[in-house]
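User: Reviewer 2 asked us to show a designed sequence for the structure in our supplementary figure. I'm pasting the structure tokens here. Could you produce the per-position amino acids so we can include them in the response letter?
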């Protein structure tokens, strides 16, 4: 199978590429990534040089680049991981979110409209549904995004829905809960808190810390996308969740305990604007198709904390600003 994976130098995309290369050594992968601050070729050091893997630096918001790649390679499937992903950055500077998450998705959809592709998978988020106090969002719940990030993801997803209906294209849209695991940029809750504590710095908890997120280990998400790549029904929407819901304070306590740190390391700070209280997905549709999680939350969290503890080489430069210098030298021609 020939795969185009966009955003493969980011957290989830790089984990997925590693998963595919290991499990299907005869599949060929093109990784198209703009290498924004969140894209990092160190995430794929062990994959570089594999004969069935090729990296192309490029922007999905640039239609000429996208169409040229579709023209030059014949893909069986396209999986779109590329996005601007951090809610706080979307609040301070939304423009790139619109460019990548909306226009970028549109360009990929035009690619699959103009060239023959068997499957396109849109990697999206539960955040498009907004916040839910009680109960769970199903695939049919209306979109009520709260942040420029979730609004831009919702817009990309709506374009997918329209391209399914209007052009009968082979698209699958996925809404997933929050991922955690190795290679997550240390600006998101779990890697930020682990690495801050490893550096003996305090952890900034927004508001009262009672916001709830549903969590999936990144390798379970890889398994879900692998499952949908092979067994997902075209034109369908799937929620990907685990039922593991935790308040941010609970997550923080797990990390503090594992690293032997005191609660005094928590600093309660001003809340994020329009901070969604709770996300929760009904994932029965995917489970009925035969997908199930493999990893236990407690063990996967412990493994994640261990990974950051053992891989300072990976995250230290990202936090120190050294990476920006390295990145400029390596990738900005
Ligand atoms: P990430 O921020 O770690 O990585 C995003 C990647 O996309 C980076 O490699 C970046 O360089 C690349 N990229 C950004 N703009 C691009 C552009 N214009 N053209 C090409 N490449 C570009 O993100 P992640 O956490 O791995 O998330 C991957 C996907 O999963 C995103 O679509 C996100 O919305 C979705 N998602 C993430 C989570 C989560 O908890 N992280 C949960 C649900 C859904
Ligand atoms: P985050 O990892 O940014 O993911 P998302 O906002 O997409 O769910 O945040 C997860 C939760 O943690 C969210 O409720 C906001 C909170 N949070 C903090 O309390 N402090 C922080 O420094 C960060 C980054 C997040």
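Assistant: Here is a per-position design you can include in the supplement:
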């Amino acid at each position: 199978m020939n795969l185009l994976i966009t955003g493969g130098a980011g957290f989830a995309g790089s984990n997925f590429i590693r998963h595919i290369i290991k499990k299907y050594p005869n599949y060929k992968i093109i990784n198209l990534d703009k290498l924004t601050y969140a894209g990092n070729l160190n995430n794929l050091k062990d994959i570089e040089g594999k004969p069935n893997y090729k990296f192309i630096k490029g922007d999905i918001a640039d239609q000429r680049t996208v169409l040229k790649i579709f023209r030059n390679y014949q893909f069986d499937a396209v999986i779109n991981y590329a996005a601007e992903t951090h809610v706080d950055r979307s609040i301070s500077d939304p423009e790139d979110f619109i460019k990548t998450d909306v226009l970028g998705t549109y360009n990929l959809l035009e690619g699959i409209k103009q060239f023959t592709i068997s499957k396109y998978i849109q990697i999206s988020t539960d955040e498009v549904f907004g916040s839910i106090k009680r109960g769970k969002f199903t695939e049919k719940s209306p979109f009520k995004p709260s942040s420029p990030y979730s609004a831009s993801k919702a817009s990309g997803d709506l374009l997918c829905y329209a391209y399914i209906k209007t052009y009968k294209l082979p698209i699958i849209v996925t809404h997933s809960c929050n991922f955690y695991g190795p290679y997550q940029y240390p600006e998101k809750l779990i890697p930020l808190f682990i690495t801050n504590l490893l550096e003996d710095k305090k952890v900034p908890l927004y508001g009262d810390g009672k916001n709830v997120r549903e969590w999936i280990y990144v390798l379970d998400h890889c398994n879900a996308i692998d499952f949908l790549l092979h067994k997902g029904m075209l034109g369908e929407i799937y929620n990907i969740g685990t039922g593991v819901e935790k308040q941010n304070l609970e997550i923080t306590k797990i990390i503090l305990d594992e690293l032997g740190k005191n609660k005094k390391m928590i600093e309660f700070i001003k809340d994020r604007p329009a901070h969604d209280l709770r996300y929760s997905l009904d994932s029965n549709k995917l489970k009925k198709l035969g997908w199930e999680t493999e990893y236990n939350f407690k063990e996967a969290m412990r493994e994640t904390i261990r990974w950051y503890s053992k891989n300072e080489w990976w995250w230290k430069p990202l936090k120190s600003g050294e990476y920006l210098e390295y990145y400029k030298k390596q990738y900005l021609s």
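For the response letter, you might also mention the following. Residues 87, 127, 178, 188-189, 192, 204-206, 211, 213, 248, 272 surround thymidine-5'-diphosphate (ligand 2) (CB under 6 Å). The chain has one domain: 2-184+215-246+276-298.
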